[in-house]
Amino acid sequence: MIKEDEESTQRIKDRKEAELEMRRTAMETKSKKKRELRRLHIERKEATEAARVQRDKEVAEAKVRQHERMQRLAAELSCRKHFELQEFYKKQKERSTASVVTMEALGKVQTELCTPRKGEDVLPSTLSCPWNYEEESEAKKHERKLNYKRDLQNQMIDNQRRFREEEEEKHRERKIMEEVGEVLHRENLEAEKAKKGTAGLLQDERDAFLKARQIWKEKRREVLKQEFDEIARIIAEKEAQQKKEAEGKSDTQAVKDVVLEKLMAKLMEEERKRLEREELCRELYLAEKDDELSKEMVKQAVQKRRIARELRQEMARNQKAIAEKKAKEDAIDAAFAKYLADEQKKREEAERIKEQTRRRNVVQYRNELREMMAEKAIQRAKEAEPIPMQTGPFITDEKRKVKCYSESTFQTFKSQDIKNDLYN
Question: Positions of the region Disordered (predicted)?
Answer without folding.
Answer: 1-56
